[in-house]
Amino acid sequence: MSSPLDAPSSLVGRPLPRPNLARLMQGRAQYVSDLVLPRMLHLAFLRSPHAHARIGAIDLAAARAMPGVAAVFTGADLAAVVTPWVGVLSHLKGLKSAPQYPLAVERACWQGEAVAAVAARSRAEAEDALDHIGITYEPLPPVADMETALDPATPVIHPALGDNLAFERRFTAGDPDAAFAAADAVVTADFRFARHTGVTLEPRAIVADWNRAEQRLTVHQGHQAPHMMQDVYARHLGLDLAQVRVVCHDVGGSFGLKVHAYPDEMATVAIARLLGRPVRFVADRLESFTTDIHARDHRVTARIGIMRDGRITGFEIDDLTGIGPYSVYPRTSAVEANQVVNLVGGPYAVADYRARTRVVFQTKTPMCQYRAVGHPIATSITEGLVDLAAARIGMDPVSVRRRNLIRDDAYPCDSATGMKFERLSHHAALDKLLVMMDYDRLRAEQARLRAAGVQRGIGIASFIEITNPGPAFYGVGGARISAQDGATLRLDPGGFVTCQTGVTEQGQGTEAIIAQIVATALGVPVARVRVMLGDTDVTPYGGGTWASRGAGIGGEAAWRAGRALRDNVLAVAGSILQAPPEGLDIADGVIVDAADRRARLPLDELARLVYFRPDTLPGGMQPELVATRHYLPRDYPFAFTNGVQASWLELDPQTGFVRLLRHWVVEDCGRVINPLLLDEQIRGGVVQGLGAALFEHCRYDAEGQMLTASMADYLVPMAGEVPEIDIGHVVSPTAESALGAKGAGEAGTAGAAAAVANAVNDALRPFGAVITEIPITPETVLRALGRV
Amino acid sequence: MMRDITITLAVNGESITQTVPPRLHLADFVRERLGLTGTHLGCEHGVCGACTLRLDGAIVRGCLVLAVQADGGSVETIEGVTDSGEIADLQAAFHQRNALQCGFCTPAMLLTAQDLLRRGGVPDRAAIREHLSGNYCRCTGYQAIVEAVEATARARAQAAP
Ligand code: FES
Ligand code: FES
Fold first, then answer.
1. Which of A109, A236, A429, A750 has the highest count of CB atoms within 10 angstroms of its CB?
2. What is the pTM assigned to this prediction?
3. What b/e sequence results for A140-158 when a residue is b if at least 16 CB atoms lie within 10 Å of its CB, and e otherwise?
4. How big is chain A by its Cα radius of gyration, in Å?
5. Within a domain: A174
6. A690 lies in a domain?
């Protein structure tokens, strides 16, 4: 029998609008920053103005006397009630970090690190009191530049660790030396990726409430992984898991930024515990810029070997990245560098590869996982090299890709780094992309305009994406982060279904796709499914939403629960109707004859009998109108997806300005559950990649002071700068699950910057200039052209 | 600190009299004093546009206007504009096209789009993008938003005599 997922009645694959959007459009959402609880206090933090400083005497008396102030705390006060944490995982061998506290103890290690906290009646009064905290700092030498972080002359930030090297990994596959020696040409480039950050439109927000009477902590938080935070809070506050509830209401953007444990959030929870009152902390934008995790900040020397016929012989990279003073808890800050090593060269059938990455400490804002972790770096290096190599041998970049991309019939296979590919579709995706963008016509147009003095460029970037991660990501390293996920379904007396799921919603449409899947699995209208998520008291234990796992893992659990509940329902129906359950089906909320589709019994009537007149059911039947299923992919550690992007842009050599004209994406995330939601999520990911390519930069001075810590200084893409973005799909479902869905949340971000950089270099080719750094600002362009 | 000041203003058609500190901005006033939390705060320095509301018929950044400056004025927030039905078609178009994800930018985006739509006619996509460029959205690719605004403009132009 073909899967009900493919039946004409299937809701999976339909572009259905999300349920419950009205709340968000009418100003009736419930973001944590909107939450007000009785007797709630507001927190403001005194933050270090220095990148590195010893904290001297702190005088709190005047601040405590300020109007509205309930309490003032120092690092030592909170260290007494919260155990410190260290962001390491055992499978990232050699990774080290130093103990971290909610508020700095003795030393502040980045500008913006919280050193004292005021709890007051209002945020304004708390901020007023900050001005009255007497504190002396003894400035210490900053370690701002990652390039010199390992020099003997550079101070060691955490003397107990011996040096500033947090993590190093070396990897070799095949015989890269021979591969480069045999190449007709070897192209070397130095890539630089600026530090940037997530800029969720709603800043981080948390309301913590310790109820002394119940001995229970409730934390309302804008977060992606409630069960992970439940564990973190319980562990470091010395509570049982059962004493902690974490609730994630509407979340105003996350992008991986809200999947970590932040010191100021730990402080909020600790202060709520100490005061026995609800305590709220909502970061203001200046705090966001200096305390939200930053990302990227890599410098990579890389080379590629190529034959005259276009065959790539090998890749080699040497990566250096600065992560701030601590590896972030509990996912660590070595994952991005590790991913870069794993992913470089990934789309290509190239066996010879050497890589080294070094992750160093510095006194800047901590860095950690942000959307598409490592992927944009790996894609930009790989695709930048491929284009440079193509230009060197005088071959069209598309031809070089066709020559080297792993063949679509070569699967399953492994990458040089041992990544396991079940089934990818690089060639089919590239073919589709070329049709969508009308590649040959675009090249002709480019040539025509170039003759007229207009510089346009075309850039292409193939990529792979890690989705549906299993325990290999965090669990095997000792992190208490669930890789499996669950769903519980309940049929209620009105014939409605509630679904509790362990994956979470931050706007992607998790609620919508879970409802579509459940409705299809069960055979009910989608409007009869209500999805509950983001509450550790309510949902099955799960990982939440990150690393593009919501659809592939949470969705499959929901599918399985739906099929299990269907079996239960049909068993009851068979007994009531005195018919074999196999001969029955559920369609549109009604039990029907499977053969002739004749209506037999509406679900609400079945549920009425079960709940209110069980006495009328045939003897011995105990109906179960609740079903739970969990899911974890087992055959592959990750479900790899692939895609390809293209950028078409115009560059003004006089001003250095780059204008994006159009962008195309073809991606393959397996079965598409809802193309309407998927396409706009990919576009959103692309736009974040475009921001990285052209605008976004956490700039620092030599003293470690952040220079772009406001929205006026840190640029993110606006509607006027973003081009129309066309999306196409190739569908290679994973055979591991019934649903066949892989993830898609990061595809857009993974390849956008690489496509833009290649397009810029394509436009610059007549000038003999090459740019291998992002963001590509007008100044970068003019420097490359030798004009400034 | 300066002394509190008593102000009287209309908010979504309702007359409100309150005593406020002079430093309280209008977005905090409607959020904290009136519980109208559909007006959001994304930066509080006038860049992101999330705090957009209407003051005397014109859209303003609620984080850049002090509550005392609105004394005697008329303020409309997303809640009021929703209740009056003024943007029901625009909201429906946003829903149909999935022009929002987390929704944090959305109330302000709707008010800003309505400000353009109220001028009448059917603006082209570039003009729509230009008009919305003071409102950051970090989740969508802006494209669905542009499409929703364009579709609403078309529908309104057709419905107009
Ligand atoms: S909060 Fe007013 S413009 Fe950002
Ligand atoms: S939908 Fe999240 S910021 Fe626009």
1. A750
2. 0.97
3. bebbbbbeebbeeebebbb
4. 28
5. no
6. yes
CATH number assigned to the domain comprising residue A528: 3.30.365.10
Instruction: Note whether A106 and A225 are same-domain residues.
Output: yes
Contact A711 B97 (CB under 8 A): no
Whose tokens are 């994630």? That residue is A248
Distance A671 CA to ligand 2 centre (A): 26
Q: Measuring CA to CA, which residue among A598, A574, A602 is closest to residue A589?
A: A602
Domain shared by A537 and A465, yes or no: no
| Residues 6 or more apart whose Cβ sits within 8 Å of residue A664 | A433, A436, A437, A645, A646, A725, A726, A727, A728
Residues of chain A with pLDDT below 70 are 1
- Count how many pairs of residues, chain A against chain B, have C-beta atoms within 8 Å: 179
Q: Do B141 and A677 touch (CB under 8 A)?
A: no
In CATH, the number for domain B5-81 is: 3.10.20.30
Across the interface, whether the CB atoms of B42 and A203 are under 8 A apart is answered yes
- The Cα–Cα gap between A656 and A650 comes to 10
* Residue B115 distance to chain A (closest CA, Å): 16
Q: What does the radius of gyration of chain B's CA atoms come to, in whole angstroms?
A: 16
Q: Would you tell me which residues 740-759 of chain A have a C-beta closer than 8 angstroms to some C-beta of chain B? A: 748
- Tell how strand A773-774 and strand A185-197 pair up: parallel
Pairing of strands A658-668, A724-729: parallel
DSSP assignments along A116-176, one per residue: EEEEESSHHHHHHHHTT-EEEEEE------GGGTTSTTSPPSSGGGSSSEEEEEEEEES-H
Eight-class DSSP state of A5: G
Alpha-carbon distance of A104 to A102, in angstroms, equals 7
A80 inside domain: yes
Q: Is A160 on the interface with B (CB under 8 A)?
A: no
Q: DSSP secondary-structure letter at A293?
A: P
Cβ distance A507 to B129 less than 8 Å, yes or no, reads no
* Distance to chain B for A403, nearest Cα, Å: 33
Q: What is the pLDDT of residues A481-501, one digit of tens each?
A: 999 999 999 999 999 999 999
Shared domain for A606 and A639, answered yes or no, is: no
- What's the CA dihedral at B74, B78, B81, B86 to 10 degrees? 140
Distance from Cα A466 to the centre of ligand 1, integer Å: 35
What is the predicted pLDDT for the residue at A473?
A: 83
CB contact under 8 A, A202 and B79: no
Q: Looking at the complex, does the CB of residue A725 fall below 8 Å from at least one CB of chain B?
A: yes
Residue A311 lies in a domain: yes
Same domain, A665 and A715: yes
CB proximity under 8 Å: A 107-126 to B = 124
Question: Is A676's Cβ below 8 Å from some Cβ in B?
Answer: yes
Boundaries of domain holding A268: 32-140+203-251+258-291
Element (H, E) at A302: strand A294-306
Q: Is the CB of B60 under 6 A from ligand 1?
A: no
What is the phi/psi pair of residue A603, to 5°? -60, -35
**Which one, of A444, A154, A42, lies nearest residue B28 by Cα?**
A42
Locate the chain A residue with the closest alpha carbon to B94.
Answer: A25
pLDDT of residue A616: 92
**Which H/E stretch holds residue A178?**
helix A176-182
pLDDT of residue A620: 80
What residues have CB less than 8 Å from A731, skipping those under 6 apart? Answer: A668, A670, A671, A672
Are A462 and A535 in the same domain? Answer: no
pLDDT band at B1 (very low <50, low <70, confident <90, very high): low
Contact A253 B104 (CB under 8 A): yes
- State the best of B29, B43, B96, B102 to mutate against chain A, taking most chain A CBs within 10 Å: B102
Q: Is B48's C-beta closer than 6 angstroms to any atom of ligand 1?
A: yes
Chain B positions touching A18 (Cβ under 8 A) are 95, 98
Q: Is the minimum distance from the CB of B98 to ligand 2 under 6 angstroms?
A: no
